[in-house]
Amino acid sequence: MSAEQPPAPSAEAGTAPRPVLEVTGLEVRYGRRRLPVLRGVSLDVGPGETLGLIGETGSGKSTFARAVLGLVPAAAGSVVIDGEETRGHSRRQWRRLRRSGVVQYVFQDPLRSLDPDRTVAESLTEPLLVRGVTAAEAAERARAFLDQVRLSAELLDRLPGELSGGQRQRVAVARALVTEPRLVILDEPVSALDSANRVQILEILKDLRARGTALVLISHDLGSVVGVADRTAVLYQGELVESGPSADVVNRPRHAYTRLLVSSAPTLHGARADRAGREALRAQLTDLSH
Ligand SMILES: Nc1ncnc2c1ncn2[C@@H]1O[C@H](COP(=O)(O)OP(=O)(O)OP(=O)(O)O)[C@@H](O)[C@H]1O
């Protein structure tokens, strides 16, 4: 930065930095009947911030991810990624944005993120080579990112089919990071993994905060997300019913659905309700949705 330029706004100076993801009033409809699957969803994620997005199956979590990536059209609302307003974007504009490397994504099934015929080295260097990075630098960065996800360079010549599920998911995370994106959307990245791998991936994601990468961590499992996410948002039947610092969401849940999630999460010590308590919360929810 030159001496003439004004300093970048910083949180310390009392001015919040511009969010990397700003979603306002997002609505998505599917099918011929145009049934709304997401309604009025608004949230933002700042640089280096991790937002957990929690909800039960069918609540619209993946639809949210797909809409933010331009893979399904928004019927209303706006999605701004790193300052770029995407409302009205053509398919080509969305493709350019996805290829720019500003936003990356990781799916639950790493085989969807990785080409089965490409070695780990090829998967990691390809996003860099298409952006004009030299082969030598791409190889160096591939090694560095493999190290960051705590995998040995010995795996560089393997195909995805020759890796364990946990290793594959770590390669998928490394591939998403190698372009140094501003925003990474992770859709259930740990739900297919055993608990040891789950903990390791979540630890790796925690480390990313220091790099300034904004993360949206999508899961149906509140317990696995709150330890990593700075803020947690709860999606219920296509609407955000609660959002706040993760500790507040766990300790002072406001919505009946969040209370049910908290009381059902075996990993949230002390928060687990007995069966009768959970049934009472479910009854409250039924009342709310009628
Ligand atoms: N392409 C589609 N066409 C029509 N309906 C769809 C389509 N994709 C998803 N839906 C419906 O939209 C709703 C939300 O689905 P979505 O996959 O976003 O939920 P989710 O919260 O990610 O669920 P899960 O945890 O099971 O992945 C569901 O009722 C689903 O059946």
From TrEMBL:
A single GO molecular function term of this UniProt record: ATP binding
Pfam families: ABC_tran (PF00005), oligo_HPY (PF08352)
Statement: the UniProt record of this protein carries the keyword Electron transport: no
CDD domains the record matches: ABC_NikE_OppD_transporters
UniProt-listed InterPro entries: AAA+_ATPase, ABC_transp_ATP-bind, ABC_transporter-like_ATP-bd, ABC_transporter-like_CS, Oligopep_ABC_C, P-loop_NTPase
PROSITE patterns cross-referenced by the UniProt entry: ABC_TRANSPORTER_1 (PS00211), ABC_TRANSPORTER_2 (PS50893)
Keywords: ATP-binding, Nucleotide-binding, Transport
Gene3D superfamilies per the UniProt record, alphabetical: P-loop containing nucleotide triphosphate hydrolases (3.40.50.300)
Lipoprotein is among the record's keywords: no
Protein name per UniProt: ABC transporter ATP-binding protein
Organism: Streptomyces albidoflavus
